[in-house]
Amino acid sequence: MNFENIHNYYEKLVLEHLHDTLIEQQGISDQDLLEDVACVALNRLPTRYVRHDVDTAFFTSDEDWQRMEKQVAAAVAAALDYVRQHGENRGED
Q: Whole-prediction pTM value?
């Protein structure tokens, strides 16, 4: 069996938000920082597993989109603060 098509839709939303907000607007280019922020943000969000992104786009109401975008923005902002505050521990497992 192949389950490669199954993924958490929030991953796409978080990565898009990281790109648009942190990379493009704030000029952050530290790959380790961005990956840590993505992981922390995703752990703060609910999961929404899908097979095809187009299905999510088609079956999601405007209100749900707005709620999801707000959740992602808040999770990324909180994750960035968290990672910056705990930056001295990054990379140490």
A: 0.85
